[in-house]
Every structure is written in structure tokens, then in C-alpha cells.
Design goal:
The chain is an alpha/beta fold. It has a 7-stranded mixed beta sheet, with helices on both faces. Belongs to the aldehyde dehydrogenase family.
Length: 479
Amino acid sequence: MDGQTGMKTLKHFIDGQWLSASDAGTFEVLNPLDDSLYATAAKGTAADIQSAVAAARAAFPSFKETTPTERERWLLRIAEIMEARQKDLVDCLIDEIGSPVQKAMFEFTKGLTMIRAAAGLCRNVRGETIPSDRASTLSMSIREPLGVVAVITPFNVPLIKTTRLVANALAVGNTVVHLPSEMAPHLSLIFAEIVAAAGVPAGAYNVVTGMGAEIGDDLTSHSDVNFVTFTGSTVVGQHINEICAKNKTPSTLELGGKSPTVVLADADLDKVMPLAARSIFMFAGQACIGSSRFYVERPIYEEFVKRFTMICSKVGMGDLRDPNTVIAPIISDRQRQRVKDHIADAVAKGATLAAGGEWEGNRCQPTLLTDVSEEMILCRSETFGPVTSIYPIDSYEEGLEKANDTEYGLSSAIFTKDIDKAFHFARNIGAGMCHINGPTIHDEAHVPFGGNGESGVGREGTDADMEAMTELKWVTVQL
């Protein structure tokens, strides 16, 4: 931090050292609430990526030989220091990306869970004994870490993604180069301070800040990177997928979503409505698993719209440090324009604004649209704002069909008392995740989190990451 101005000056964290960009370049990080200057950060170059990968590669041979006890101790120590630095992390989430304090505390608590779950993973990297056709032969498989893991995280849940992906990679013996979103670099650098304070060896965790569009390819295509995990847009994910396929680099990609919620006529609306609101308005809809499509059986459709409209008028849009505030600012000018364009296009083509549609500063009001049709952009595209469409359906079967009518396949939900229909939906929805009588927004440290189709490749979570970030080796012993 600049002692004279109080402005944060952020540097890379490479091989245990805080470094400026190789060409001394910087970029500005803005507070999305009012676009005021939040920090100045090192603008990473190809040379900086090279230095970080080299540090991670050099650290790997010794780090992979560390014991489960050592890695477990480091991770639990990280959790302890995170608790001590709760205010720093929560303040950063509020001021750097515009998280309401309620969401910031949710993310902080979830981040602690991710770290502690990863600590438990250290003792679960296992192979198996295998029957052999050769007499007097012991046949087995062992799991080994891959090497250098490239972690690319988004702006919307930077602490959850950082704690999960970095901790799981370290837990199984890999080293990490982390490229956070250019809109949320400080959060990852606070985490780097915590990692260093916990005693994790230099080079095991490295952070380069900068523009993903400029240096992302330098990281994902690097010959010394052994695994890539990316969370972000489908367009960028497809680009990374092509790079990894060309280089035969394994990867997991957690991408966009157009997550549906089906509400059947027997659902209890008193219980459904707060969960429905949570599933789209948390962090102003800037969540890949947010429910941007509601399919509601016709007998309760009008009542559902009426209640949802009433909720929209009461959703908090006050001070971000007020626990009653729900709606966050939209992160950037480009994303604000996308939200505005989607709403304007829908209204111009005949959609009805049941609620919202207006802006208060950089915040979009909670917005409900009905009479949405195929020619409208938001019918199929991800808006990434507090905007959702509500469609009437005449049967469960129609709801399932329409829920599956998408290129995406991330999260999904159904509300009903009919257990047969609920499980039929769970078995037949083309999404990677399904929640019965719960919102599309849900995550836990140990679950297989991820989607299908345009929503990504592979799964995240302790068990899934253990399998993805290690490789099996077959070993035989002739006795």
C-alpha cells in the first residue's frame, strides 16, 4: 500500500517474493459500486508467466515428496490465518467486487470449508491392489501428482474458487500458478499472504495478476503446465479447451449456464418463493448457477408471478455493508451494457416487464420478464445479471422438455411433492447438477460440481479434483 495516498499497489507473488511486472506495467482495479479506483496492480507479461511457471516447476520435485502430515498442517494453518484475517477478506470482497456483506460472509465461510476439506484430502490419495494373471505377482496402482497446475479464477466468487482449486491442487502434491480475474486480483493476493504465513514452501503457490486476454494463453499453452482448471465464460472456455486438446493437457472447465427451475402445481409457494429469489438475485445474478429460467405449471403461474413481483419490490439495494442488502453492482461497464441490451431487446420484441428493468447507479433492479419468446436474446443466452424469465407450462413433461432445450447444462431445480416426478426429473435433466425442492445455487466442498455441454468439462470438488489432478501408475512386483 502506498503510504502517502493510502492506495493499494498490488504485485505478483512468485517464488515467495512480491514482484512488479517485468516491464513495470500496471492496470487499475475499480470498485464496481461507483467505479472509483480501488487498487493499482501489476500488469502481468509473458515473462511474468514464464517466471511463475518456472518457480512452480522448480518447487515441484520437493513439494511432491512432502508428507500428508505436512500438507495437512499447512492447509489447516491457512484456515486458522483466514479466520484471523476475516475482516480483510470480507472487506476485499465488498470493495473489490461489490459483494453485499451477506454474500461476502457466505463466501468466507464456504472458503474455510474448502480449505479444511482439502486438508482431509491429503490422506486420501490412494491406489489399489489389482489381481494379476501372473503367478506370484503383486500388482497395484499408485496415484502421483501431475506437476504444475494452472488455476484461472473468476471475479464473482474469487475466494470460493481460489480456496477450492488451489487447496485441492496443493493437497495432492501439485504446485500452482494462479491467474485471477483482472477484476479481483487483490483477493487472491491476500490469500497468497496467508499461504506464505502458513509456511507453505516458496514456489508451491504463485500468483500473476493481469489481463487474461493478454497472458492467459501464455499460461494455458505452457509446456511445463500439466493441468489447467478454468472458471469463466463459455467462449473463453472453448478457446482454452482447444489449446489444451492440442497440447494434450488435461483440464476442467466450469463455464456458463442457463439454469432452469421447474415449479409444479403441487409445490408449496410459501417455501418456494424465498428459494427462487435466492437462486437468481444472490450477487445480482452474477452466478453461473443462477436460475435464469422458471417454468411454472399454469394453475399456480399467476400467483407465482405475483409473489415474485412482490419480492422484487422488497429486495434490499442499500449499503453493501448492511446485512439486508442483496443486490450487488454489476461488475463492469461491458457487463452492465450486456444486461441492459438483453432487457431492452426482450421488451422491444414483446416481453412484459413484470418487475424491475431500471437501474440505480451501477445496480440493476431485480427484473422479472414474462412473455419471453425464442427471438429474444435472453431466451437462450446467459445474461449474468438479476434478470430471469418466467414461462407457463401445462404439464411436468413440458417443463422437462423446455428445461432441456438449451446448449447449457450446469445446474437445475424442481419443486414438487411428487417423488416420482422429482426423481424422473433428476434422472433425465441434461445438467450436471439437480436440486429437488432447493435452489439452483448450491455448492459444497466435496461434491462433484460442474456441468455438461456448453457449461463445461469435468467436475470440481475434493474427490473429483483428486482424480483429475493426479495420475495412476501401474506397478508390479514379481515375488
